[in-house]
Structure formats: C-alpha cells, structure tokens
Amino acid sequence: MIAYIIRRLLIAIPTILVLIVASFFLMHFAPGGPFTSERPLPPQVLANIEARYGLDQPLWKQLYDYLFNIIVHFDFGPSFKFKDRDVNDIIAQGFPISFTYGSLSFLAATSVGVSLGIAAAIRHNTWIDYFAVGLGIAAQALPNFIMGPILILTFTLWLGLLPGGGWNGGQWQYLIMPVIALSTSYMGSIARITRSSMLEVMSSNFIRTARAKGLPTRILIWRHALKPTLLPVVSYLGPVFVYVLTGSVFVDMYFSTGGLGQAYVGSALSRDYAVLLGVTILYGTLTVVVNLLTDLAYAWFDPKIRY
Amino acid sequence: MTLFSVENLSVEFATPDGTIKAVNSISFDIHPGECLGIVGESGSGKSQTFMAAMGLLPPNGRASGSVRLNGSEILNLAIPDLNQIRGSDVGMIFQDPLTALTPHLRVGEQMREVLQVHEGITGRAARQRCLDWLDRVRIDEAERRLDQFPHELSGGMRQRVMIAMSMLCSPRLLIADEPTTALDVTVQADILDLMAGLQKEQGTAIALITHDMGVVARMCDRIEVMRQGGFVESGSARGIFRTPKHAYTRSLLEAMPRIDAPDAPQVFETLAQPILRVDDVKVHFQMKIRGGLFGRKVPLKAVDGVSFDIRHGETLGVVGESGCGKSTLARAVLQLIEPTGGGVSWLGQPLVGLKRAELNKYRKNLQIVFQDPLASLDPRMTIAASMAEPLMTYRPDLTRRERKGQVAEMMERVGLERQLFNRYPHELSGGQNQRVGIARAMINKPKLIICDEAVSALDVSIQAQIIRLLRELQAEFGLAMIFISHDLSVVRAISNRIMVLYLGRVVELGDGETICSQPLHPYTQSLISAVPIPDPDIERSRGRIKLPGELPSPLDPSAALRFLPSRLAVGEVGYVPKLIETKPNHYVAEHDSLEVILAG
C-alpha cells in the first residue's frame, strides 16, 4: 500500500511537469500578450515592460526561469495585470474561499445524492422511487449558472431572506446559496448513479444468499449492499470534487464570493500568463491527488483490489 | 411425517410481453433425512420452485399454492416471519460460490452474522461454532480462513464455506441448487461426499436441484423429473434409472454421455502422416507479483512443453481441470497467442513466427469453436452474415447468390431452420447459436477444427445433439478435431485418443478406451474415479481415488512435481517428469506409485 502511494506520487512529478510545460507553450503560442491593447504602447515603453517581466528573453529561458522559481522558491512569479500582487497572493486569497464552498457543495451533493439514490432503490417502483427519480432528473437539468439567478431571485429579491452576494468571512448566510447552486446538478447525477447501482447489487447472487440466510433487510442493505453500491459512485466522485473546485466561476460571478474561479477566467481574458499558469498547476496537482485518493478508496470498498 | 410439503405450487412472472408461467401446479414431499433430486434442463422451473417456496423470487415473480414446513404454511409469509425460517430451519447453497458470497466481507463475518441473527450468539462462542463447522466441512487451516475474503479461496473451498454457513444452525432441510455445476470433477466429487456425509450424520434432508444425471445417481433416494414447469415422472432413484417410464426421462438418460459408454469411438488406425504436429509448445505469461517498490514478475507456465500430433479424420480429446492450460494450448496451436517456445507445423510447414497475412492463408483450414456461443458471435450481425464472412474472406470469387446458397446449405446441414436466416444471435437459443458457431467454422470445409469447451454451456440433450452433429460432419468432411473439455464423459463420447493435462504438462496420452478403463497415471486415475456415472448401482459401488490436498497454484514451483515427490525430496525442484511410452501409443508421465502419493 505504502509502496503504491510512493509509486503514484513519483509518477505524479513528471505528469505535473508535462502539464506545466504544455500549458506554458500553449499560452505563449496564443496570439497577443498581456501588454497588447487596442491603443499600442510606444515601442520603447513596451520593450521596457517586457524586459521588466523577462518577456524579452528566449522562450526556453523564460520556461527555465519559471520552473526554477517554482521548484526552488515555490514562487509562481508576479501578476502581469496587477502590478503590486504576485500569483502566490492571488491564490492564497481566492483558493480558501473556493475550497470552502466547493467542499461544502461536494459534501452536500454526495450525502443528499447517495441517500436519495438508496431510498429510491430500496423502494423501487413506489412513489418514493418516482419522486427521487424526478428530483434527480430535475436537479441534473439545473447547472449552477441557472441555479444562481433562480436562487437570488427567490431568496434575495422575493423573500428577502438571504444576502444576495459577498463572502463576509464565510458566514453561513453567505454560504447557503453558492453551495446549493453548485451542488444541485451533481447531486442529481449522484442520485441516479447510486440508484441504478443499488438496484443491480440488490439483484445479485450474494444478496440472494444473504436473504436465504434470513438476515433482516437492515443488515442486508447496510452491511452487504452498501459498499458494492458505492463503488461506481466513488469513481464519479473523484472528477466531481475537482469540478466543484474549478467550475465555480459562475458562482463567483453571481454571488461575488471572490473565489479563484473569477481570477482564473479574468486572467485568461487579460492574458495574465503568470496567474493562468499558477492556477492551472494548482488544479492539475489537485486532480492528481484526488485521483490517487479515489484509487485508494477503491481498495477500501473492494478487497479484491490490493495495491 | 413429512418435513417439507409442496401442494399445487405455481409460479408466474410478469414481463412486458405478458405473464410467463414458470411452474405449473406441482406437488411433492420431502421426508426427514432423505435426499430428493429435482432434475431438469434449463428453464424447466426447478430452481424457481424452491426460490418461490423460500420467498426469494425476483420482484416480478408471484407464487400461489401451498408450501408447508413441519406442517405450517410458509408460502408468501411476510419477510420478518420468513427470516425466522431461512438460514435456521432451511439452509440454501447455490451454484456459483464466488458470486454467492459477499465479496467485501470476510468469511468469518459472513458466518457469524447467521448465528447472531438466529441464535443471538456472538463473540468467542460464535467464532468457535464457525471454526467447528469449517473443520467439519474439511477446510484446512480453518482459523486463517475466517479472516480471508471469498476471492482468496478456491472454488471448492468457497462451496465448502457456503455449506458450513448454511449448516451453522443445523437446518432440517438443505436446498442445494446446482451446488457442483461450476466445479471441477474431483472437487465436485469431494463436495458431494461431504453433502452425503452431512445427510447421514446430521439427518439433514437435502433437496438437490441439478441437470446432471450422474450427480443424481450418486446422491438421491428419490427423483422428480421436471420439464416446462411440471413433473413428468417421479419415483425412487433406482426405479427411474432402471425403468424410466416417460419418454422425456428416457431421452435425458440416453443423452447423458457416459465414461463407460460401450459405443464410444475406438482406436484410430491409419498409416497416414500427421497433418498437425505440435512440438514442445510452451506458453509462459509474466505475472506481476506484489512486493518491493515496483513489484516483480514471475513466469506463469500455462503450457509447459506439450507435444502431440493429429491425423486426418482423427479426434484428440484434451481434458484437465480448470487452470491446466487446455484453452491456452488451443490458442497457441492456432497462433491466436504466440507461443513462448516450441513449434507447431501444419502439413510440414512451420506456423510459429509467421506474419499475420501469411498465417491467414492457413486459417482457412484451421478453425475453432468457442465455449460461449452467444458471446463469440458478433451481436450486430445476422447469423447468416456471420456464417458468410469466412466465405467473403477465402472465396472472394463467389457471387452473392452463391454465397447465400452455401450458407443455406450449411444451415440445413447443421440443423438450423431456414427462417432463422436473418435473425440475430440474441434471438436464438444457446444450442442454435452453437450450431451457428459450428457452421461458421465448417463453411470453408477446414481440415482441422478445435472445439474449446464447445458443448459445456449447453443442456445435456442439446449437448448430445451437437456431439452427434460434430461426429457426422467429421465423417462427411474427414476433418481432424481437437476436442477440449473439462468433462471426461463428453470427451470420451467423441475422442479416439485422449490427452490428460495437468498444470500445463501432459501426464497421460493414449486411446480413449485405455485412458478411461486402465489409466496408469495417479492423476488420471483420480480424475476418472471422480467422474459420476449415471447409474445408481454402479456409481455407489465405485471406489474413489482421492489425492490429498487441493490443486496447487501453477505459480508454485514444486506443483509440477506433485506426482514425483521422490525427486522433490532429493531437492531436484526443477526436474521435468519425462513422458514414457509404456505400451505402443500410450504415454505416461514419470510418477511415483499411487501409494506414495496417497500417503501425501
């Protein structure tokens, strides 16, 4: 197990390096740059600015410096757009916010989705099942950029119950709507996967054996059926966790939460190479780690998998 | 006093195409301590009868009638009431012990929960009771098994665990649904012995649901023959085997291949040169073993130096238990996987190492029929298209019409009706699909055909038809055949010569009659003695040669010398037993005497 983890982490190093190099070149091959604008700067000024950020160096030298600073100083460099901020600052400010409401959304989507799916499967072909399936499909059809405006219309403008935006240190009133907006559609998918997986497990041979042993339904479901049911759900949860952390740009926009999503998209629009690269690397690393955790979770759910 | 009494039991399933009657108003009794056999082919409703009785039907199933246990009605009881009976008064074991055990729970956990639910026993007392039962079903290292997961046990051991688990609360009735169908014949014999022992010692009545007349002959006191949801005949085991009254029972008994059959193929005498020569073929796979940072690789010798040849018109049977490398050998002979070493030559031309395009020229004459007929046909092609495909490849000169004509001719030849021409595989039965597989392989009139467990998935009556068909086609086209099966009786019914494989090596090779009646190698002897014969008198008076221990893992380097412990004792672990020609055309691998091996 430990050997496996070490091996995976060793493989992660070249993976992330490839990611950095590929993003770096993609970014530089795209036409335009951080300092091109509709009204061109005087050539001398432009040359000065580029020299200040090292953009006058050959590309390989830029890449070398960039990698060197990351590896040795863990420094992702200065932002090209905001003169007095560097990338580390921007991430340090935005990521905790994104992470907070992202993980809460993940927990909400998983717990509600799984419960709904299990309830539907146990009460297959009853009104509970129909209700859960209906809710699941409806939820799946409501991505966060639709849920956002609906929630604000309902709870802020109409009922006046919740603040329409802001973060305010992550107070619960400010968290509710972002979390609901972000989690709803994933919750729907999780509910549907759980339901169909559980239905399959409940018709499997070992459940028949468990019934033939005279086990009460409670034990049947929690001890025998739950783990195999969750196996396909877990493989879906890994990507979902990354999505809720990265796909939050609309939430940041609608609710002005100040998360990383907004900085990410903003940096792409303004060609802020440094911020864009920094956030990409952060998300890439996160993906690698989450994939590793997913694989480790497999081993817990299925004893046949041994690392 | 009857223990279990079924009266006018009917089972129906609601399907989108309407209601299907699976069981049609049947009645029978089981008395304490007896073994009742319910015999029938797939779809006869034999399993559903007991599923219905125990409340285990799928949600769309409905049961009516009456089922009494010790005089009280149990049919369609509420689940909590049924749970008092299931696992306590009535134990059940099922066909496939791998999928029938919960994969993520340890053996001990699965056993203990039965005691907890029914008798409130937990902790050390429960553990002790589980250990006792694992000992009683003769599992070695019972203590360690309690903490293992089902996938860490062999098939036979899993079925023993199932039996131990169902016997924990000393039920009065044990329902065994095809308990040995997925197991190797020696393991099957062990499990049947075990069940017969429990019946005698514990006085447990057994309801044995099976399609195998041999198993019935060994185990049952009384028999009910079931067909299409109803009983066609019932009576004592001896009576039914001696004087079957119903035509269906007779046909079932006739269809059952017998290892002692008098009409089996004889020695094949010809002076012709062999058409296929297989010389010291080896297939080794690199298996990844855990350990260290990057693991390490160990060769698994699936086939380890097998040589034989085959003549025009001859059938060679290949038998062995699961994992002996018989399917790998078939694929290596046809170059579907590349052998690690050795040579295969066809009409004097070497096949090993040829490029794919060159090999394809030979494939016209080298064909194979696989085990699972449905899975080995393209689901998106009509059966006619599947059968015509080899013609398109090897006879591009044919017109559409000629092709169609040949396919139709072949369909008629293998007994497929004309109107099936444009059907898809999923619309056909297993037997029909296997006929398609055979027609596809035969359509170019190959010179060699390999049947890899080609009849194993089929019901006995269909199996008999397919074997008859293969024998007819062989006589007609004069082709050579390699017939691979785990079932010795079937192999005997079709083969001139038989080759016995054990962990990738030949242990005995000779003509069918000699191998089955006077085997020389201890492994062959134990294999033959374990094959059930569908005749209660013969079957119950036969002795069994039981080798000590389980079939060892092919990764264990000393496994290959299981029958030559004298070499192992002097430390020659790498010694390869030689194949010795004891009589003309009868080869036996070097081995120690049976007494030495039985002493373990």
In short:
The complex is a heterodimer of chains A (307) and B (600). By secondary structure, chain A is mostly helical.
Can you characterise this structure?
- The complex is a heterodimer of chains A (307) and B (600).
- Chain A has 307 residues and is mainly alpha-helical.
- Chain A has two domains: 55 residues, no CATH class; 208 residues, MetI-like fold (Orthogonal Bundle).
- Helices cover 76% and strands 0% of the residues of chain A.
- In chain A, α4 packs across α7, α4 runs parallel beside α12 and α6 packs parallel to α10.
- The radius of gyration of chain A is 24 Å and the shape is flat.
- Chain B is α/β, with parallel strands linked by helices.
- Chain B has two domains: 179 residues, Rossmann fold; 245 residues, Rossmann fold (3-Layer(aba) Sandwich), CATH 3.40.50.
- Chain B is built from 22 helices and 22 strands.
- An eight-stranded mixed beta sheet of chain B has the order 16-17-18-13-19-20-22-21, sandwiched between helices. Chain B has a six-stranded mixed beta sheet with strand order 6-7-8-3-9-10, with helices on both faces. A four-stranded antiparallel beta sheet of chain B has the order 2-1-4-5, with helices on one face.
- Chain B is globular.
- At the A-B interface, α1, α8 and α9 of A face α2, α3 and α6 of B.
Give descriptors for this structure:
heterodimer, A: 307 residues, mainly alpha, MetI-like fold, 2 domains, B: 600 residues, alpha/beta, Rossmann fold, eight-stranded mixed beta sheet, six-stranded mixed beta sheet, 22 helices, globular
List the helices and strands and how they pair.
The complex is a heterodimer of chains A (307) and B (600).
Chain A: H1 2-29, H2 43-53, H3 59-73, H4 87-122, H5 127-140, H6 144-158, H7 172-202, H8 205-212, H9 217-246, H10 249-255, H11 260-269, H12 273-301
Chain B: E1 4-15, E2 18-30, E3 35-39, H1 46-53, E4 61-69, E5 72-73, H2 79-85, E6 90-93, H3 107-119, H4 123-136, H5 142-145, H6 155-167, E7 173-177, H7 185-202, E8 205-210, H8 213-219, E9 222-227, E10 230-236, H9 237-242, H10 247-255, E11 274-289, E12 296-311, E13 315-319, H11 326-333, E14 341-346, E15 349-350, H12 356-363, E16 366-369, H13 383-394, H14 400-413, H15 430-442, E17 448-452, H16 460-477, E18 480-485, H17 488-494, E19 497-502, E20 505-511, H18 512-517, H19 522-530, H20 536-541, H21 565-569, E21 579-583, E22 586-589, H22 594-598
Parallel strand pairs in B: 3-8, 3-9, 6-7, 7-8, 13-18, 13-19, 16-17, 17-18
Antiparallel strand pairs in B: 1-2, 1-4, 4-5, 9-10, 11-12, 11-14, 14-15, 19-20, 20-22, 21-22
